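help with this record:
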Amino acid sequence: MRPAHIALAVMVAVIWGVSFSVSKVGLESFTPPQLTALRFLVAAVAAIWLPRPRIPWVALLFIGLTIFTGQFLLQFFGIANGMPAGLTAVVVQTQALLTVVLTAFVLAERPTRRQMTGMAVALVGLVAIGSSLSGNVPAVGFMFTLASAVSWAIGNVLIKRLPKVQMVHLMVWASLVPPLPALALSMAQDGPFAIWTALARAPWQGIAAPIFLGIFASVLAYAAWGSLLQRYSAGDVAPFALLAPVVGAITSALVFGETFSSTRLVGMACMLVGVAIVAIPIDRLARILEMGKGERQRANEAGASSARPTK
């Protein structure tokens, strides 16, 4: 991957990592269906002036149902049912590994040995972080969150099957799908006017949450992610999402006071190393090290030459 695209993938992971804490803040004011509906109503506003991507309506519907509706309804229900923000960030990012597995079976896109090695190292870190998170986590919350990861991975595969499209346009138009089922579920679960009551009572933090999630974590981040998936293989791109739990854990520590154990720190280090293995091919890394060695050697020779006495 080009350095600019690596930086873009890291930026997306940072936005997603922060969004887990933002989601928890939003769920203090809204129920899961309400927050899902508000998030994607914000994201879908741009459909007023952005043209629809040239893909079949059925494809647009299924992308909206998997990568947005299924993922975030399930994720928000998981958090509402007792999943901490840090643990949610860890479990959801199993989508990175699921995406590579699904593309291998569905699209015959086999990961390379280097990609498999990097994912294995990152998975060790993922397991270490998950094992270090204490507290009683309800099984139903965990299952909701795991199902969220499956829905996201399916959506990634659907995006890879598309022809080249404007990803911002695709994400905006796919955002039109979640509000209807989310609002219907909210009316059935919370009452027909509950969302208006929640909006009227929400503090500014609660109002800011769906705005951030809709604009940055949905449209901009997923547009960048989708463009990377279309440009590179899933094995190149998906592991970068494993950085999101690291950012999520740090953000959760700052916002909610979660503490870091030595096991979690080791897990974060493993995930960073795993992503580095995937992002930087061995031959490129060897060239970087060789260049650094050559520069040090030239510097030493220059220093030795200047230190010789003049006659």
